[in-house]
Amino acid sequence: MCCQCGCGSHHHEEGQEEAYELTHARRFLTKAEKVEKLKEYAEELRKELAAVEEHIKELES
Questions:
Q1: What is the pTM of this model?
Q2: CB-based contact 58:51 (threshold 8 Å)
Q3: Alpha carbon of 50 to those of 2, 8, 26: distances in Å?
Q4: How would you write the pLDDT of the chain (61 residues) with one tens digit per residue?
Q5: Per-residue DSSP letters for 14-60?
């Protein structure tokens, strides 16, 4: 019996395990993962804003 899905071991044959993982992958983010991704995105935006503000200062001088 398969420990991942309980269906037997047919997808554990050579070359099948990777295909199984691709087709049975988790398709959602946990709340913690969403928060982490949003924090990373916010940091990217802060860096981009700083670069834009720097560029504006250069153009004004």
A1: 0.56
A2: no
A3: 52, 55, 36
A4: 455 566 665 555 566 667 666 677 778 999 999 999 999 999 999 999 999 999 999 999 9
A5: TTHHHHHHHHS---S--HHHHHHHHHHHHHHHHHHHHHHHHHHHHHH
Query: Could you give the CA distance from residue 7 to residue 13 in angstroms, rounded to a whole number?
Result: 13
Amino acid in the structure at residue 37: K
Residues 12-41 as b/e (b if ≥16 CB within 10 A, e otherwise) read eeeeeeeebeeeeeeeeeeeeeeeeeeeee
Which are the contacts of 4, defined by CB distance < 8 A and separation ≥ 6?
Answer: 20, 24
- Give the pair of three-digit tokens for residue 50: 């700083």
DSSP 8: -
